[in-house]
Amino acid sequence: MLRWYGTLCIHLVNTALLLLFVDFLFWGYREAAPLLGKEENPLIRRYSLPHMKSIYPDYTEEEIRTLLDETWNRSYSYAPYTQFTEAPFTGKFVRVTEEGYRANSDIHPWPPTDETVNIFLFGGSTSFGYGVSDRETLAAALERQMNESHEYEREVRVYNFGRGHYYSTQELMLFRALLRDGFIPDRAIFVDGLNDFYHVKDLPFYTNHLTEYIDGLSWLEGRDVPLSVKVVLRLKGLVFDPMVPNAHVTDYLIPQDGSDEEAREIAQSVFRRYLINQTAIRALAEKYNVTVTSVWQPISTYLYHEKYHAFAKFGLEQHRLAGKAYPFVQKIIEIENPLPELIWCADIQKNAKKNLYVDPYHYSGEMNELVAECVLGETVNEIGNEIR
Fold first, then answer.
1. Sign of CA dihedral 340, 345, 346, 352
2. What does the domain layout of the chain look like in residue ranges?
3. Which residue in 136, 320, 348, 359 could disulfide with 256, CB within 3.0 to 4.6 Å?
4. What is the pLDDT of residues 27-64, one digit of tens each?
5. How far apart are alpha carbons 137 and 51 in whole angstroms?
6. Rounded to whole angstroms, how far apart are CA atoms 96 and 84?
7. Which fold would CATH assign to domain 74-206+244-387?
8. pLDDT tens per residue, range 65-100
9. Mean pLDDT across the stretch 227-240?
10. What is the pLDDT of residues 288-303, one digit of tens each?
11. Residue 101 and residue 81: Cα distance in Å, rounded?
12. Beta partners for 249?
């Protein structure tokens, strides 16, 4: 009986190791293929190179491939409290520092100096600038417009702390961490809306993966399991594709095709959470004498005619819920005015008759300029009075 059990265990472990090895080979091929020129970038593969060329008319084909690879083939790094951050990276179009902020035209010094007006920008991938170069991001547009206005005696530097998948809860935790470590800006700008409706249940992107991994470790502790089995299970818990949503997102996302009544209820719940996060942000900011600017961002599924969206024909389902919920948020703001300081930029594209996106959801450089104009149109006099 014992011999039979031992043989079975050996076969099971060998099978698990073989499957793990095959997974590793596929993972290695997927990672190496773009570098070896064997596989197109996923956006080019889905939308075609000619279509992407129409989005980037001033770029060569090689530059388009480089920009999209630097946007979508980078990795995340672990970060306390927020789960993850954009990993340090140095490319032709995308540069991310060790401290976690993206460069604009230049990489600003860290820590910030008192000789400049220092603004920290928080948000998701639209704030980070997925699909555009360092000099075309929202942070770069804000910085350029503020400095070119000649309204300020000191140079303005905008530090881009936008990060993929981040929403208001993670931004609060990141802001707190920066203040705790002594990095205190003159102003903090928070750009939100899209990702709060992607994380309806207030669970960051890797929650399911981390839950499964920690639960697996807890199950192994104290059990008389062969070492080889422990090794396989631990490795299996670490090997996953960070960009496959079915593995960890669908369990806690609300269906995007819900009814108007569902959208109304979700809008109330999500916006209530947003207000709680904003209240906490403002309490911290007041303690450290930081001025806060809160922005409700435009999105491709709200007040933007699909006729002019270059990617509408491919589908915009991933963020349809936000588009349905936005009108209810606007109504809450009009009736209750719970956050008088909130800058409403959600409707700045309603009369646009051109494409303003580099993929279904991320802003083009021109759109970033429009968002910056919206933000500064509301804040330029206020900021100028503070820092003159």
1. positive
2. 74-206+244-387
3. 320
4. 454 555 545 544 678 999 999 999 999 999 999 999 99
5. 22
6. 14
7. Rossmann fold (3.40.50)
8. 999 999 999 999 999 999 999 999 999 999 999 999
9. 54
10. 999 999 999 999 999 9
11. 17
12. none
